[in-house]
Structure formats: C-alpha cells, structure tokens
C-alpha cells in the first residue's frame, strides 16, 4: 500500500508498541491527524494546551513503562510544553516527542511561526532528529522509539516537516531494540560492601527503578543488616509504598532537613540517583549537601541495572536478613475544620487499594507520606523536575496507562492553575481521577523561600506577588466549566464524605479542600 510520511510514522509507532498519542496539533500536523483514522490501534488524546500533552505523556510513561507519543505544533508548541518535558527528563520517562514544522521549501520565508526547533529540543539533553524525506520517516520513528527507551529512559524528539509528512514514499520500519541497563561490575558491589562493613556511619540513597518493590526490599535488607541509613531520592519518578512494603524515608526538600537526616554520616552510597544538592542556592549556605568530609560511593548510575546491583549487595551483606515491611495501619478519621495536619489523615484513612497518587500538594502535602505509610499498597508520582503544573496532567496520563486503577491527584492551588485544562481531557476521556485541590489562597512555598534567601519583607508589593486571593479562586466552578463534577470541603467530615463518593463513582471528580497554609 502506498503511504505518505505521516502514515508510515503511525504504522511504525504501532508496530513498536506505541499506541497512545497525546496531541495539540496545528496546520503542519494535519496529515498526521488524518492518518490516525487509518490505524485504529493508536489512540489520539487531545490536550487543550501543550503542557497538558507533555505532562500526560510523562504520567503515562511512568506507569506504562513504555513511551507514549506527543504531537506538538512547531517551535512555539514545543516551547509551551517544555516545562513538563523538563520534569519528564528528570524522571527519565520515555517519550516520543513529534514536532511538526513548516514545509522545507517554506522555511526560507521566515513565516511568523518559524523558529529553531532543534535548539529548543536540544535543551532536553535527549535524542533529536529531523526526517529528511517521506522515505526516511519510518526508520527515523523506529530509531526514536528505541532512543526513548534506552536505559534509563529519555525524551526522543522527531521533527517532521509538513511536506515530508504529506510526501509519498513512506515505508513503515521494524522496531529497533533499545539499549538495556548496564550490569554493575561485581568488584564495585564488593567495594561498597566493604564500606558497609566498616565502622563509620553510612547513608544509602536510591532512585529510579530502585524505588520499586524489588529495590526497596533489597535496600531494607541492607540497612537492617548493616545499620546504614536508607533514603529514597527527594522526588522519585515513581515510588511504591504502603502496607507490605518497606517504608523508606525520602530525603528532605529543605537543605536543613537533609543536614539533619545525614548528620554524622561519613559515607554516602548512591544507587540510581545522584549525591544530594540543595534545590536552590542560599546566601552563606552550602550547595553540596553531602556532610563535610564524607565520601560518596556510586553503586549504580541511572543507566545501570540498579535493582540487580542492590540485590547483589544485599546478598553480600545481608544474606539471611528479611526486609522490614510496613504494617497495615490507617489513621483515625479526624473531625473539625480542615488543617494541614488533618486533611492528610483523611487521605490516609480512605486511600483505595492500588491507587496511583500524583502528588503535587507541595507545602500542604508535607505530612502525606506519614499519613499513608500503612495504607493499602499504592504508587506515588512526584514533581521530579520542580517545574510546577505537573500534577493534573501526570494524573491524566497515568489514568490512561492504568485504567483499572484509581488515580488520586493531590494538587496545590497555585500549581493547578498552570495546566488546569487537563480536567477537560479527563472529562472527555472519562478517566477515573479524583483531584483534591488544596486551596490555601497563596504561593505558600514562596513565603517560606522569601525568608530563606534573606529577602524577608512584609511590604504590600512583596505580599501581593505571593497571594492568590483578591479575587479568591473558585475551583468548583472552574472544574464544572471543564465538565468535571466538583464539590468543596471545609471540614474533615466533608472531605471524607466527598472523597468516598468521588472514588466510588466512575469518571473524574474534583474536591476543593479549604486548608490554611502550613507555613
């Protein structure tokens, strides 16, 4: 069958097991849009802004373990989606990022949307290629899918000029095998084992795939046998938690928290992540959070087989030791007005079995891990790159990747406003997502940071830039405008009743929880 470039692209995607495309297309991508009807195996999901598209692809990849495709319109479309692609880069999420461009012969005219797409895509430190002809598209797509899945995962961007898309001569290509995780040499494992057997205090910090069950069980065994302090990275892409799994503490967000957690440590062993650094620079404070004089030992880098390395290390130093597992234990349901302390108890008490939690609660959610440690087993997806506006789109993509699991989105008010259009996609696709927006009417984290950087001010201009009232935000009306049923909770009893009903009913729901600032 004769094909154009766009048709060969979609056939190649499907043959490589990429069967979801999150899209916000424009004129240059119309032949791709048309080709979607030729290949029923691929699902097109419309996002009303590019940040929704890229964030949803991130959430999908984290849960599916394989890439989704995105479809974005030229350089400005890519630029609009870059923040959540940044988060995906930090999460090592596999994404096949397809960017339409002007026809090759049209670019010389410098039309209004002309831009340097390669430069924008290059900022993601991933894989970038431009297809030269319709005949090249299939092989280029196969290479992109493989590149996205090269361990540990990355954003692979394919630029498709309009005339390459509509040009005849497209040929689907067979899938290419991605690069597998690298094995860790046994002498590296043995060297770390000797550090653990020594007399000096050790901290173990894990990330990436090590935050799943097998890695966490190995980490718990090692810590239990050696006395090392076990930690997960501050913002894991996906961490498994709950009753029956090791309850591993995450490294703190604030430098002061990390200093306390690593106090007295003389060796830091990292596996699947990097040694800790401060999220920001602060006057007179160190950026490197490894205790002064302590040594860093790398057991496994992000592209290594970190789980196998941890299991080998556990067999070396903890052969007969079983991991410590969190007991099934829920908080009691609280009563009274909502507070930063009691709303998390409601979630911990009612979190459903097998939930996927997209956590962008930020300052309002500091106590969530403690409240949910003994809840039924669940996954948590966190703000890996710090670019806010991730939570609602990531929840959207996760729900498409795992349609049989309830998705709970814990969302701060300020972050929600970046990509709240994702609620419309949830309604359109009838996704089982319960969003709890913590409305404290402020950028609370910035109030804290104002003090921590030494710029404390009580002036009206400074206060005004961190305030989300006057006018107050009404998330119930916003959600309903996007087609999502919504309610408002002011008490713990109201939140519990609304959360129960939202989780039990099919389709998306939003609860606006009126919670005062923690900070």
TrEMBL record:
Q: Which UniProt keywords apply?
A: Ligase, Thiamine pyrophosphate
Give the protein's recorded name. Thiamine pyrophosphate-dependent enzyme, possible carboligase or decarboxylase
Q: Does the keyword Ligase apply?
A: yes
Residue span(s) of domain Thiamine pyrophosphate enzyme N-terminal TPP-binding: 3-108
MF (Gene Ontology): acetolactate synthase activity; flavin adenine dinucleotide binding; ligase activity; magnesium ion binding; thiamine pyrophosphate binding
Outline the extent of the Thiamine pyrophosphate enzyme TPP-binding domain.
376-512
Give a yes or no for keyword Kinase in this entry.
no
Q: What is the lineage of its organism?
A: Bacteria, Bacillati, Actinomycetota, Actinomycetes, Pseudonocardiales
Q: Which family does it belong to?
A: Belongs to the TPP enzyme family.
């Amino acid at each position: 069958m004769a094909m154009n470039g766009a048709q060969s692209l979609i056939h190649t995607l499907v043959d490589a097991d990429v069967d979801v495309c999150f899209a916000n297309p424009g004129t240059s991508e119309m032949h791709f849009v048309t080709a979607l009807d030729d290949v029923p195996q691929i699902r097109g999901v419309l996002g009303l802004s590019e940040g929704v598209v890229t964030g949803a692809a991130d959430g999908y990849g984290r849960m599916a373990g394989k890439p989704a495709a995105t479809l974005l319109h030229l350089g400005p479309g890519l630029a609009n989606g870059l923040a959540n692609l940044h988060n995906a880069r930090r999460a090592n999420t596999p994404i096949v990022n397809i960017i339409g461009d002007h026809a090759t012969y049209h670019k010389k005219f410098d039309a209004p949307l002309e831009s340097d797409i390669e430069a924008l895509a290059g900022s993601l430190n991933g894989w970038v290629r431009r297809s030269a002809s319709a005949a090249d598209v299939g092989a280029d797509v196969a290479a992109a899918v493989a590149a996205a899945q090269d361990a540990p995962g990355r954003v692979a961007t394919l630029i498709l000029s309009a005339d390459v898309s509509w040009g005849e001569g497209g040929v689907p290509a067979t899938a290419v095998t991605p690069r597998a995780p690298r094995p860790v040499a046994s002498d590296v494992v043995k060297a770390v084992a000797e550090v653990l057997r020594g007399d000096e205090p050790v901290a173990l910090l894990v990330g990436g795939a090590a935050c799943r069950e097998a890695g966490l069980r190995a980490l718990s065994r090692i810590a239990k046998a050696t006395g090392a302090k076990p930690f997960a990275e501050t913002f894991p892409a996906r961490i498994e938690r709950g009753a029956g799994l090791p309850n591993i503490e995450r490294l703190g967000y604030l430098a002061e928290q990390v200093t306390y957690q690593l106090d007295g440590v003389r060796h830091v062993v990292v596996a699947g992540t990097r040694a800790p650094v401060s999220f920001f620079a602060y006057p007179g404070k160190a950026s490197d959070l490894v205790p002064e004089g302590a040594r860093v030992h790398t057991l496994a880098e992000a592209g290594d087989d970190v789980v196998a390395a941890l299991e080998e290390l556990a067999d070396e130093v903890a052969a007969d030791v079983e991991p410590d597992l969190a007991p099934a234990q829920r908080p009691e349901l609280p009563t009274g007005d909502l507070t930063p302390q009691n709303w998390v108890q409601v979630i911990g008490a009612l979190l459903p079995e097998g939930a996927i939690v997209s956590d962008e609660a930020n300052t309002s959610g500091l106590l969530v891990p403690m409240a949910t440690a003994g809840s039924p087993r669940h996954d948590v997806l966190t703000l890996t790159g710090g670019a806010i506006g991730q939570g609602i789109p990531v929840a959207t993509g996760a729900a498409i990747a795992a349609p049989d699991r309830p998705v709970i989105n814990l969302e701060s008010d300020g972050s929600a406003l970046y990509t709240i259009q994702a609620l419309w996609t949830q309604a359109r696709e009838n996704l089982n997502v319960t969003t709890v927006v913590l409305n404290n009417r402020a950028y609370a984290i910035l109030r804290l940071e104002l003090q921590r950087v030494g710029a404390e001010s009580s002036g009206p201009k400074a206060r005004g830039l961190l305030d989300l009232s006057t006018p107050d935000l009404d998330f119930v009306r916003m959600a309903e405008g996007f087609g999502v049923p919504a309610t408002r909770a002011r008490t713990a009893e109201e939140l519990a009743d609304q959360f129960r009903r939202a989780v039990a009913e099919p389709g998306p729901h939003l609860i606006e929880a009126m919670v005062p600032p923690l900070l």
